[in-house]
C-alpha cells in the first residue's frame, strides 16, 4: 500500500474521526438509536482507516501526498517522478 498521508495529516484525520464519533453518538443521539447519529459515527471509520494505514484513496486518484521531505526520505516518494516535457 502506498503511504501518501503525512504525520500532521494523520493526526488531523484522527481528531476528525474522534469528532465524528462524538458528534454522531452524543450530539445527534446515535447512542440512543437515532439513525443519522449512528451513520455519522460509522463514517468515522474512514478517517481512522486512513490514519492507521497512512494511505488515502482520494490522494491516490489525484497523485498527491502530504508527506514531508523527511517522510519521503524514510518511506520513499509515493509516486514515480514524471519526466519533464520540453
Count of separate structural domains = 1
Q: In percent, how helical is the residue content? A: 55-70%
> Total helix count?
5
Bulk shape: elongated
Q: How do the SSEs run, as a string of H and E? A: HHHHH
| Helix/sheet category | mainly alpha
- Tell me the major beta sheet: none
β-sheet strand percentage: under 5%
Uncertain runs: none
Question: How much is the average pLDDT?
Answer: 92
Distance between the termini: 32 Å
Total E-strand runs:
0
Q: C-alpha Rg, in Å?
A: 17 Å
What does this structure look like?
It is a single chain. The chain has helices at 7-27, 35-43, 45-53, 57-62, 69-75. The chain has one domain. 17% of the residues are buried. The chain is mainly alpha-helical. It starts with 6 loop residues before the first helix and ends in an 11-residue tail after the last helix. The model has no long low-confidence stretch (mean pLDDT 92). α1 packs antiparallel against α2.
What topology emerges from the helices and strands here?
Elements: H1 7-27, H2 35-43, H3 45-53, H4 57-62, H5 69-75
Helix pairs in contact: 1-2, 1-3
What brief labels describe this structure?
single chain, 86 residues, mainly alpha, elongated
Report a brief summary of the structure:
The protein is mainly alpha-helical and 86 residues long. 60% of the residues lie in helices and 0% in strands. The protein contains 5 helices and no strands.
